[in-house]
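Chain A, query sequence.
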Amino acid sequence: MGSLTEVREHRFAKEDDMNLDWQVCSRARLSRDARFDGKFFIGVIGSRVYCRPICPAPTAKEKNCRYFPSAAAAAEAGFRPCLRCRPECSPGTPAWLGTSNTVSRALRLIGESGLEDGGVEVLAERLGVGSRHLRRLFLKHLGATPMAVAQTRRLHFAKKLIDETSLLMSQVALASGFGCVRRFNAGIRNVYHRTPTQIRRLARQTEIQPGNQYLFRLHFRPPYHWPGMLAFLAPRATPGVEVVEQGTYRRSISWKGRNGYFEVSPDEGRDALRVRIQFGDPHSLFFIIERIRAMFDLSADWAAIVQTLRNDPALEGRVKADPGLRVPGCWNGFELATRAILGQQITVKGATALAGRIASRFGKPFSGASGLTHLFPTPEVLADAKLGDIGLTGARAETIRALARAVCSGMIDFEGVVDSDVFLNRLCEIPGIGKWTAQYVAMRALREPDAFPSSDLGLLRAMALSSSRALERQAEAWRPWRAYAAMYLWRIAGQSAVRGNHTVPSNARKGTVARISSPEPASIAV
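Chain A, predicted structure.
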């Protein structure tokens, strides 16, 4: 694709606010470039529909096209979604659109719960800004108000449920947040000019799922390094709770008193992941889908990330060899933090074994999927658990109990985090949790793209450095994508270890066991 494409990606990634470069948009539209899917939408003046850049319909003349930075902006301008390319299936809003941290955090909160907790005013209060200012920021960066963004997401999810499930329309209405069937029917007819039943007939479903099972396709912007994702998740999969086998990830889940599981695999021939969910309450599907999207980093904008990382000679070769590596998220922040604590000063294999013992001893039994036998224990269960019985040291057991008690008391809440710095400072107040653990949690639970556990031995080995301070200085060039740089460095360190290269920093070569502060690939006792 050559340097011209790279220049176009760079120009587009650098565009600020509402000032989309129409020439870049036009070229991406004409070439149907999947890397731009979800970055902008095309309004066709004649038909009054808006499309994705990859829409297979005959291309309209340039004079009849308008470009929008979000689906909500296109909807606000009076365009309706295309039934052919299905804008509701496009990848999520990429991070670069949120040039305002406030907008990025607001989008994350809307993704978790919509505006069900009190509307724009409550959302603005949580973010520490006025509601009028929040509206101005959304109009500036996304071309639509927070309410319009939330409404578009609700309609898109309803359309996805109509197309991809056999749920009754009354269940679709409630699951997508409409509250009642009348509002749902009116909303769908107003936007799509068809009834929900007519839309379902057009969908031509070919795979009917059993009761309480749902099949979705979640799209991403290519490239996506699925083997790299599994290579990271597999050695950290908690026995009985998670399974990685035959190119598929599977895990048990619990939400609002209901239990179930999901499994994820690549959808061959599409830039998408195939997600199968079994869960008794369809009203929770919006949350589950959004959490899975975050867990597998499906909204990442590789074009923006690669522009930064490939400029460093230390990363250039690896980025070229393994394009599209993502930062794995997690299903549950408390579970991830507990796993990080277990991984302090021991190997990945050892930490995974301990996590399996915790799940087996204290988790709720679960059945219904191959290899899944338990749900990970809740904070309430671990707050007073006798963790020493499964082989944990007294200090490590007390750190986990202290974390669990902090969650139970509300001092720590992994859901709806608005200010990550405040959250991480509070997390570090728990004895036994330091900067490495906090940054690892920020990477995977808070989904902070610039989080960076600089004291990690694997990262130091990959860069042949002996101090975290030196690594932090070099990592300045990787902002705001240091978490993605960390994934590549861990991959470098892991492959070096496989080849038998166990070089360690100079401060660890004194005849003693090296201090291991993370569960990363190269974190092995020397």
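DSSP finds 23 helices and eleven strands in the chain. The CA atoms of residues 227 and 303 lie 20 Å apart.
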